[in-house]
Amino acid sequence: MVRTPCCDKTGLRKGTWTAEEDRKLTAYVTRYGSWNWRQLPKFAGLARCGKSCRLRWLNYLRPNIKRGNYSKEEEETIIRLRESLGNRWSAIAAELPGRTDNEVKNHWHTTLKKRFKRKSSPTSTPDYGKDKNGDREKEGTKLNNDANRLVISSPNPPLILESSPSSPQPASSDQNSSITADNNTVESSRLGLVSDDNLFEAYEGNEADSGSFWTEPFFPDSSYKWSDMWAEFPFLDGEILYPFGFCDLEGFNL
DNA sequence: AATAAGGGCAACCGCCTGTTC
DNA sequence: GGAACAGGCGGTTGCCCTTAT
After folding, report:
1. Closest Cα partner for A205 from A162, A153, A155, A151?
2. Which residue has the higher pLDDT, A254 or A68?
3. How much is the pLDDT for A181?
4. HSE-up (13 A, CA, CB side) for residue A70
5. Complete edge-to-edge strand list for the sheet that includes strand A178-181
6. Basic residues: which segments have biased composition (predicted)?
7. What is the total count of domains within chain A?
8. Pairing of strands A159-163, A150-152
9. C21 C1' to A80 CA distance, Å
10. Is residue A92 part of a domain?
């Protein structure tokens, strides 16, 4: 079977995401959900492959991602599950709330694999709780490669964020429209999507509730006034196209 | 201080699977 | 039943930072 490329490669950016791209993607997915990753970049005003957008969202921008140091329990879980499941990173990550398969995979290859080998050796013990740089990653904060990127890890339970009550519910999901977020990251703040502009309102919730958000189909909220979006995302300045222009828009408040 | 080496992690690539028509 | 498509997954790469020399 001849497969079409996931996207037209011409003119698409690759490599590290910029803060502006992050803002656009976050704003779009937060508001409209991931109704179609392949089409999404076009509507979100991004010169990126849809798969790249998906990966960026799932592994980095998604609000309930836990970042930073792994606990001893988490590392033991990874090692134990890998022994039983093999390299099924997504299955392993599913047992670690807030961790992504990519992150778990990276952590295994960069850290745990070595520890595991040493642990297997009868003369050595694993050095849990200490990375290769000793205490390089201080408790609570971590400076990432990107100077603009400050990630804060915290032992607090994750928060679930949802759109401001004053604005329509994001047409994104099941539990419907609530998205989960973690106060471990200040990424959203960096993106200018929280706090001052009141786009998100944090509240506590059951993390398990967020699970299907990412898998449920996206249904547009018929009550939403699309034009209100520009007021909420002034920085986008009209760069995002309305989705569903090709759909039955009956009931939409365009 | 300069450079090399090593390591962490974000992102890409290509294949697989599930769904729709 | 099969083609086309989208999403998911794991392997791998390459950039950039830290540490060692």
Report:
1. A162
2. A68
3. 37
4. 26
5. A178-181, A159-163, A200-204
6. 111-120
7. 1
8. unpaired
9. 38
10. yes
